[in-house]
Design goal:
single chain; mainly alpha; 39% helix; 0% strand; elongated
Length: 83
């Protein structure tokens, strides 16, 4: 019986901690200066503000799907491949 209450208490504490860590962050004010990527990540991180002197890694840019496609030419339009 004691183990069941202990498990419920641990789950409640974990849930409360997760809910507090994911609290919504305030939106930037209109007319405020544009923040750099580093400043934005520091100020609006999901767990709250970060330590000021820590350098964050850059986000990778998404892959452009047009980089792997073939260009459409007049010859291709005149004689399209089968399929």
């Amino acid at each position: 019986m004691y183990g069941r209450w202990k498990a419920i208490a641990c789950a409640s504490i974990a849930f409360a901690g997760a809910a507090a860590a994911q609290a919504p962050q305030p939106a930037p004010q209109p007319g405020a200066p544009e923040l750099s990527e580093q400043q934005r990540l520091r100020q609006f991180s999901p767990g709250g503000p970060l330590t000021p002197d820590v350098e964050l890694p850059r986000w990778t840019s998404p892959r452009n799907p047009l980089d792997s496609s073939a260009p459409v030419t007049d010859a291709l339009l005149a004689s399209p491949p089968p399929g």
